[in-house]
Each structure stands twice: as structure tokens, then as C-alpha cells.
Design brief:
This protein has 6 helices and 12 strands. With 289 residues, the protein is α+β, with helices and mostly antiparallel strands.
């Protein structure tokens, strides 16, 4: 009798583990490196705020829009290697039963790129890691100029920081409705945003002096052509106001309050430094003083 009970319990345990594996530990597991500093929308099991946690990132998926509300991921040197880009887009079969499963072909002929939230370039440590970025729940309809120019340049800058042995925690998503594609199953966001927590020394206690934030709010349109990503810098507070999310809530409150309100600009020697960036440098200097 005891042996049967043990076997039964083991079977139940195996079923639970299998379900967690198949769903990517969806909707129940929140203690994860990619959520170390918070779950911006308190995502759990609701179909419009459905938590999916993977080894490479965590996300809140919205079955009503066909895209993620946000995707959150850690970036440091350990995630970067020499793995080639997969380019193999695949649907996500981990979604709730009533949720439309977006296919790679849904974007064909739409005029929009299949734009990554977690970039392929941020997961080059392994083949499986890179392939995970091509799952369609990590993809949004993105204007070609946004995806291939200003957004890509910000992605590259983030990796530069990682190669300098800084530790980054990033959250990205879209906001608003520009139009819909795939028979209205997939929303094209009007804006695309990203917030980044940069830790200069990951081994030290986090303070307002050794941590900073970078945030951008960009139009998801061709109007961004020939612009610099710094043209779209805002404060994290502004992105929170626009989206209703709470970023980096697990930081010490005094640190969170201070670093989320400051505009952090990266001044590079570039002929593309625009008047907008120069104006923001002036505003940032006033804010700091």
C-alpha cells in the first residue's frame, strides 16, 4: 500500500514537472534572474497579462493583441558568444488554449519586420539560446527603419556595455495601436519603448552612484529614418506613466526614485548627434544640478 502511494505521488510530481517544462514555467514561477528587479505588470495567468518564463528571458503575453506586453532579460558578458543568428522563426505553443497562436507567415506582406524584443545578438552564447529569441511571442511588428536602424543601434550600445563588464536588466515592449495585421489578430504598436538598468559593478551594493537607467520611447514608423536613438531618450518615470507599468520595483526605493527620473545621455563623437540630443543634454544637466 505504501509503495503504491509513493509511486502515485512520484507520478503526480512528474506530471507537474512536465507541465512546467512544456509551458516554460508559465504563470507561476516569478523568482528568475530576468525578473530579479521586478515583474512590471505583476503578470500571472490572465490571458492579457500571461507570464512566460524561459531560461533566456521572461515575458508578459497579451492574447488580445497577439504580442507581448513586455519582455524582460538580463544581459552581461556571459550571454554573448560566437553563435550564428538562427533566423528560424517559430510559433509559441505554450499559450492558453483560447489564445491565437501567431505564425511567422502572419507578418508576410504586412510591410512590417518581425522585430525582436530580446535581440538575437543578446543571446549568442548557445544555439538554443539564440533560437529562443525567434519564438513569435518575442516578436512584434516593427517598422523597417526602426528595426534596422535606431533600435538596432541601441541594441548594439547595450552589448558594448556588457562587454565592459557591466550588468544590464532590460525591459522592452510596444504601446498603442497603429493598425492590425493577420486578420486583426496582431496589433502593430504605435510606439516602441525600452528601459535599461545598468549596474557598473554587479558585485557591489546598488546605489544611485553606481547604477543608472536609460529609457527610450520611439515611434514605430518610418519617421525615425536617419535619426539617432538618443533623440528618443526619456526618463523611466515617463515610460511608466505612458504604460502603467512599474519598472525595477525591487530596487531600494531611494535608488529607484532617483535614477528613474534622470535623463541619461550617451554623448558620442558622431556627426549624427542632433539638435534634439543637444537640447536633452542641456535638460539633463539642469535635472542633475
Amino acid at each position: 500500500m505504501k509503495l503504491k502511494l509513493i509511486i502515485s505521488n512520484l507520478r503526480c510530481f512528474a506530471v507537474v514537472i512536465s507541465l512546467l517544462w512544456l509551458t516554460g514555467c508559465s504563470a507561476t514561477v516569478t523568482q528568475n534572474v530576468h525578473l530579479r528587479y521586478g515583474n512590471p505588470s505583476n503578470a500571472k495567468t490572465r490571458e492579457n497579462n500571461y507570464l512566460i518564463v524561459k531560461p533566456e528571458y521572461a515575458l508578459s503575453y497579451n492574447c488580445n493583441t497577439g504580442i507581448a506586453n513586455w519582455v524582460s532579460w538580463q544581459l552581461d558578458r556571459t550571454w554573448l558568444g560566437n553563435t550564428e543568428r538562427s533566423d528560424h522563426f517559430v510559433p509559441n505553443v505554450e499559450l492558453p488554449a483560447d489564445c491565437y497562436v501567431v505564425r511567422p507567415s502572419d507578418y508576410i506582406g504586412s510591410g512590417y519586420d518581425r522585430g525582436h524584443l530580446v535581440p538575437s545578438g543578446d543571446r549568442t552564447h548557445s544555439r538554443l539560446g539564440n533560437e529562443s529569441t525567434f519564438i513569435m511571442t518575442n516578436i512584434i511588428p516593427q517598422s523597417p527603419s526602426n528595426n534596422r536602424e535606431v533600435w538596432r543601434e541601441l541594441e548594439e550600445y547595450s552589448r558594448e556595455l556588457a562587454f565592459q563588464d557591466k550588468e544590464l536588466y532590460l525591459v522592452a515592449g510596444g504601446e498603442g495601436i497603429a493598425k492590425k495585421i493577420a486578420d486583426s489578430q496582431v496589433v502593430v504598436p504605435e510606439y516602441i519603448w525600452k528601459v535599461i538598468l545598468v549596474l557598473d559593478d554587479p558585485t557591489s551594493e546598488i546605489t544611485a552612484e553606481n547604477a543608472k537607467t536609460i529609457a527610450v520611447w520611439m515611434p514605430n514608423s518610418e519617421e525615425v529614418i536617419d535619426t539617432d536613438w538618443q533623440d528618443y531618450i526619456v526618463s523611466v518615470d515617463q515610460v511608466e506613466k505612458n504604460t502603467g507599468y512599474n519598472f525595477f520595483a525591487a530596487l531600494p526605493k531611494r535608488v529607484q526614485r532617483k535614477i528613474e527620473k534622470i535623463l541619461v545621455l550617451v554623448v558620442k563623437c558622431s556627426y549624427r548627434l542632433s539638435i534634439t540630443v543637444a537640447q536633452k543634454i542641456f535638460v539633463a544637466a539642469i535635472a542633475i544640478n
